[in-house]
Specification:
7 strands, single chain, globular, about 45% helix, alpha/beta, seven-stranded mixed β-sheet
Length: about 300
């Protein structure tokens, strides 16, 4: 094959669906409200994902992950060149900016990987919008359509995205609904749902991919030690994560990113938080406030201690 791959990883973790009643939350939203920084930094936090997958020393991990998701040969993937590596020890600013990773490979394919921690409205439409942008930005009005290279989008979520299925990995393409005939392979979408993989103890068909899903979900040293025994790649990944978790600068970046998410989260929920605060002042019971607002116990405690 001729040409180059261009791979772009974008981690988006600070968006959340806003509702004023009957709000549903997940583990990640409760974690936002906690002040302490976990001993093991979460790989699903965008800055941690960037540090794990977006440095010169992480190309072997990124390669293994892409091979597990795409089910292709190492020869087809080729060598990876990271165009914008993140250098932790050289980072001096107070703004993280866009946490993306761009890589160049042999083919002309474009790959977009996104980590989405919290639910957000119209997620499916958003996925298609960004995939469409990756297609249209490849050519100008005067260019031939034949220049368009294949676009692959990989979305990792810490919430259930495809409610109609129990599978944690879905592979979507442009197929005829009745015959199953593929119209074109110019567009390909993979979804990886961590909560579904969390329930599985094994996946004989996709053992390497399940290991990665377990790794993204890991929260303790014990979980990492178990994963490290699965393969040399998992051993490297767990060691790298434990090193990052012990790095003071990485922890400061994690704390700064967590504060950004906490502030954004509070702004988005300002109305329902105000309702909860008023209910607390009226001495309503915790159960009644939870029913009234849809907030969790942790969120109500946060409101109780916050300055509203």
């Amino acid at each position: 094959m001729q040409g180059e791959y261009e791979i772009m990883i974008v981690c988006v973790a600070n968006h959340r669906e806003m509702r004023y009643t009957n709000i549903k939350t997940n583990e990640s939203s409760d974690a936002i409200l906690k002040n302490e920084i976990p001993k093991i930094l979460s790989p699903l936090m965008d800055i941690v994902f960037k540090l794990l997958m977006g440095t010169e020393g992480s190309k072997d991990l990124l390669t293994d992950f892409l091979l597990a998701v795409l089910n292709i040969s190492p020869d087809e993937l080729g060598d990876i060149t990271i165009a914008n590596p993140f250098l932790l020890q050289e980072y001096k600013g107070d703004k993280l900016g866009i946490l993306d990773v761009k890589l160049k490979l042999r083919t002309g394919k474009v790959i977009n990987i996104e980590v989405q921690v919290d639910p957000m409205p119209f997620m499916e439409s958003r996925i298609l919008f960004y995939v469409s942008k990756l297609i249209t930005e490849q050519i100008d009005e005067s260019d031939q359509y034949g220049k368009i290279k294949r676009v692959i989008s990989i979305i990792i979520t810490d919430h259930v995205l495809i409610k109609e299925s129990e599978k944690y990995h879905h592979h979507f393409g442009l197929y005829d609904i009745e015959s199953g005939i593929l119209l074109t392979d110019v567009l390909e979408i993979h979804t990886l749902e961590v909560p579904k993989a969390r329930k599985l103890s094994e996946d004989t068909a996709k053992s390497d991919l399940l290991n990665w899903m377990k790794f993204f979900d890991a929260k303790t040293e014990e979980e990492l030690k178990v994963l490290a025994q699965k393969s040399p790649t998992m051993q490297k990944a767990t060691l790298r994560l434990m090193e990052l978790s012990a790095d003071e600068k990485a922890r400061q970046l994690y704390e700064a990113r967590l504060k950004e998410r906490r502030d954004s989260y509070a702004r988005e929920k300002a109305t329902v938080f105000t309702i909860a605060k008023n209910a607390l002042q009226m001495k309503l019971s915790l159960d009644d406030i939870m029913k009234l607002t849809g907030l969790t116990h942790e969120e109500i405690e946060y409101v109780q201690n916050a300055d509203y």
